[in-house]
């Protein structure tokens, strides 16, 4: 007796979510603005709703995964009243502030609200390596944990609806830092005709070796203790400047590197001799801006 689930939004991700629910035997109702994207899911057994209202009415759990929060509100806003007594699971990418506002709006209409961050690409959905972070209603997560488990490994953070997107975007920030670094590295060796594919395995093993340092740096950040630094910041700033010089010499843009260099220099200027790697995080703090 699987819980019926509605999936609103059948982009690449919504289709994968609906597919995983069908694979797990959940009666699945789908709705999308462009109805043609529902065809293959219908063949697999999904019920295609003609209206959003019909889609919401079909299931106690309504998953929404569209482009952004503005679209979520555009689609669900006119039908807020019909959300009462249901669990709204919003897997759309957005900010913590948007998630909190949406939680307030949905709970104001009598729905239970869970916000989620999908740490996976569509092909991973339904497999354990697809991590999906949730925050919001603890009762709703407890009730539907097994159902959400059909989508990937469901990890509940806490009752603050904003936390799933905070973690999600923070993890993406780390990912883009890594990708940006790789793009720079590939462009640098590419300037001497080294194929990126030939260089990539070396980058992978280097990055793997370097990630080992992260928990130690993190502990020093948390405790405020100075790092027992084998790699002091002044030394790092000198070699960092060499990365920029070499890039320029090879005809490669330094736009991805300049902000990191500015941060290193600011930390060194602020702390003179005492700057260490963990102190960099403090340099990044600014006052929150309300958008
Ligand atoms: P797609 O671009 O494939 O799909 C976008 C979806 O939003 C479609 O269902 C589209 O409908 C709908 N949509 C956009 N604008 C409107 C509108 N004005 N009114 C109604 N519906 C609208 O994106 P994905 O499915 O890949 O992504 C969906 C969410 O999942 C995003 O928030 C994304 O960040 C997140 N995500 C995606 C990942 C990925 O790798 N794909 C990874 C992790 C998270 P229509 O088909 O009619 O255009």
From TrEMBL:
Domain NADPH-dependent reductive aminase-like C-terminal as annotated: residue spans: 160-285
Domain spans labelled 6-phosphogluconate dehydrogenase NADP-binding: 5-154
EC numbers for this chain: 1.1.-.-
Pfam families, per the entry: NAD_binding_2, RedAm-like_C
GO terms for MF: oxidoreductase activity
Domain of life: Bacteria
Keywords linked to the UniProt accession: Oxidoreductase
PANTHER family the record matches: CYTOKINE-LIKE NUCLEAR FACTOR N-PAC, OXIDOREDUCTASE GLYR1-RELATED
Family of the protein in this entry: Belongs to the HIBADH-related family.
Protein name listed in UniProt: NAD(P)-dependent oxidoreductase
Organism, as annotated: Nonomuraea roseola
């Amino acid at each position: 007796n699987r819980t019926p689930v509605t999936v609103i939004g059948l982009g690449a991700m919504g289709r994968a979510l609906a597919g995983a629910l069908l694979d797990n035997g959940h009666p699945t109702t789908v709705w999308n603005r462009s109805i043609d994207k529902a065809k293959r899911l219908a063949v697999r057994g999904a019920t295609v709703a003609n209206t959003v209202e019909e889609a919401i009415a079909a299931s106690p759990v309504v998953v929404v995964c569209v482009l952004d929060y503005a679209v979520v509100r555009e689609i669900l806003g006119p039908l807020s009243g019909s959300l009462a007594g249901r669990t709204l699971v919003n897997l759309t990418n957005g900010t913590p502030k948007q998630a909190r506002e949406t939680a307030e709006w949905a709970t104001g209409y009598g729905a239970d609200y869970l916000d989620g961050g999908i740490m996976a690409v569509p092909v991973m959905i339904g497999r354990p390596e697809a991590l999906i972070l949730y925050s919001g209603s603890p009762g709703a997560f407890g009730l539907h944990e097994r159902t959400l488990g059909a989508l990937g490994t469901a990890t509940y953070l806490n009752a603050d609806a904003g936390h799933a997107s905070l973690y999600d975007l923070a993890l993406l920030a780390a990912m883009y830092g890594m990708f940006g670094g790789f793009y720079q590295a590939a462009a640098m060796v590419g300037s001497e005709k080294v194929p990126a594919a030939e260089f990539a395995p070396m980058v992978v093993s280097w990055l793997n070796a370097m990630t080992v340092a992260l928990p130690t740096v993190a502990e020093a950040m948390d405790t405020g203790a100075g790092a027992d630094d084998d790699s002091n910041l002044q030394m790092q700033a000198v070699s960092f400047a060499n990365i920029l010089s070499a890039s320029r010499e090879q005809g490669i843009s330094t736009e991805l590197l300049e902000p990191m260099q500015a941060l290193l220099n600011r930390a060194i200027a602020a702390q003179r001799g005492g700057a260490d790697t963990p102190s960099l995080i403090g340099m990044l703090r600014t006052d929150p801006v309300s958008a």
